Amino acid sequence: MKELSELVFGKDVRYSDDHEWASASGETLKIGVSDYAQDQMGDIVYVELPEVGDTFAKGDEFGSLESVKAVSELFLPVGGEVVAINEALEDEPELINQDPYTNWIIEIKPSDASELEQLLTEDAYRELLKG
Amino acid sequence: MNENKTPGASGLIMNEPLLWEKGKKGRCGMCVPKSDVPEANFPEALQGEGPDFPDLSEVDVVRHYTRLSQWNFGVDTGMYPLGSCTMKYNPKINERVAATPALAAAHPMLADEHVQGNLQLMYELQEYLGAITGLPAVTVQPAAGAHGELTGMLIFAAYHKSRGSKRTKILIPDTAHGTNPASAALCGYKPIPVKSGKNGILDAQTIADVMDEETAGIMVTNPNTLGLFETNIRQIAEVVHAKGGLVYGDGANLNAVMGIIDAAKCGVDVMHLNLHKTFSTPHGGGGPGAGPVCVTAELEKFLPTPRAVKDGDQFKLEYDCPDSVGRVHGFHGNFGVLVRAYSYIRTMGPDLKKASQFAVLSAAYIKERLKGTLKLAYNMPCMHECVFSDEWQQEDKITTLDIAKRLIDYGYHPPTIYFPLVVHGAIMIEPTETECKEDIDQFIDTVKKIVQESKDNPELLRNAPVRSKMRRLDEIQAARRPCLCG
After folding, report:
1. Interface predicted TM-score (ipTM)
2. Model confidence at B1, in pLDDT bands (50, 70, 90)?
3. pTM for this entry
4. B356 and B326 share a domain?
5. Chain B residues within an 8 Å CB radius of A68
6. A1:B394 CB<8 A
7. Is A100 domain-assigned?
């Protein structure tokens, strides 16, 4: 398990209390999980993804990650409609362990873009991890 | 501790290929006498390739399965302290009773008057389980714990429907068994997770905050998966009942409280029991299970049919129950398992209660003796299992998995690990009442020795197991790219 000093943080991303991240790319947001989340889960063996067109509110469960230890639900940090899913994860779930920021999980069109601003900054997220 | 005294040692283990890789065309196990009737033509439409069975001699087959059995670790081999699973010893008299031809060979379609003994056994088992739980009406049909939960949820749904009440949600604490949400969801209920309090048990106020008239009720595992008794269960039941809901008691942990608590008085309306846990019938790969469901008199009419009933001096199967949720299993459930549980209850008699007392004592003893070695998840009186974590081993970068694997080298089946999920790196130990003090002491000493090794020579743990037939398996690849063909 990584120490706080060993954790990697994403570029231009905001975090939720549940260790998901969101990052703006034009009109849409990419969603993934933090390095802390993948490190805690251990080797991920299956990613359950939603379907394109599904709509979720902020905080809704949109999928799950399964590691050899447990299944963890994924909660959407910003509400919206799924416009793309990262299909590569279906065959190679380990991509999330390798680089949790490049390997986003879903892309959404936010219903309220201002929700992104309500998420934690890197500094605030570091504070959360310190506990 | 003298290492030679632990059960683990190395010995010669035979390799064994798949049956398809053994044998030779034309070899056979037994010869059938030559047919003395003329051959008849088989209709062409029914002809085709036969199944792909290997040609083997009898000794090929016997050695194959004997060798596979030697790779196994069962409760007949050694201590199996798998938390949440109650891997108690299965007394052999139960097997003997279950093998009695009059019981084992009875066809399930025989008329009631020809199987009075079997029906009497089912009826009396229902009565005993009703007496043990305080919930008088019982079905023995469900085939396992989760099946009992599903049956219980069907009863919840039937009850609410009978009152014209439409409910969509169900409360599930984070210390409930993992199958509970799935069982409820199968009945169309949306599981609402409820967080346990700081000390690992539920707070009645937390339930009051979320319980409403759209919620069918709550599923509580008591003792919960942390091995702690839900002391607020009565208040919780009052809150749920006040809003018209029902209380489901997951009885998988009954081994802590058998004959000690009365579920009905705790406010529980429906409860399943795992005969393959508490009532010593074989568990896991050892055979099918049974998950009888016990309910209050008010809910009796919703139980699955048929049920064994007593009519004067006669026993019969009662099918005429218009409010019943219907059948949940073919014929009468896993009858052979029912026989074993019946045998267990009859042979134990009044000592059933002692089984629970010793189960709790064993776990409490382990908790006290290991709490300076491994971090206790909750420093509270435990029931039949205790939960530790690997928090103190993190500085040596040793995980729960490493400790579990090292236990294999010393001849123990590892405890449950990484469950319950609310404890990070959980190690859940359930010794059961069937381990004697000497064996429990030896287990404790072994855990202490392993934790000492984690400081002095952590590689011993990281490389473990070294004495087993297979070394540490790549469970990640096994999950990501499983090989499912023989």
Report:
1. 0.71
2. low
3. 0.87
4. no
5. 475-476, 479
6. yes
7. yes
